[in-house]
Design a protein that fits this description.
Blueprint (H helix, E strand, L loop, with lengths): L1 E4 H18 L3 E5 L2 E6 L6 H24 L6 H8 L2
Parallel strand pairs: 1-2
Antiparallel strand pairs: 2-3
């Protein structure tokens, strides 16, 4: 973790935020030599990633299930042709 003062943070704010985002750098901000704050990258919660993956898996599974049971008197090309008229 890098230590920087408030004055340096003011001067290099954009650069520091970019380093935090891209390099996952952590900064301790000091005022008059005393640590007062920390800047750290935000991590996506694992539960959210897991939920998103589960939702996509379920969507793909349902698509396959629908495709297996699809019995239309017309082909998909014919149906699309009719819709576009």
């Amino acid at each position: 973790m890098s230590d920087i003062g408030v004055r340096e943070l003011k001067t290099r704010a954009s650069e520091i935020v970019q380093e935090v985002e891209k390099r996952q750098t952590r900064y301790t901000i000091a005022r008059r030599g005393r640590p007062v704050a920390v800047i750290i990258p935000i991590e996506k919660p694992r539960a959210q990633v897991s939920t998103e993956n589960s939702a996509w898996a379920e969507l793909l599974r349902l698509g396959k299930e629908i495709a297996r049971g699809w019995q239309a008197p017309q082909s998909s090309v014919e149906i699309l042709s009719e819709t576009r008229r």
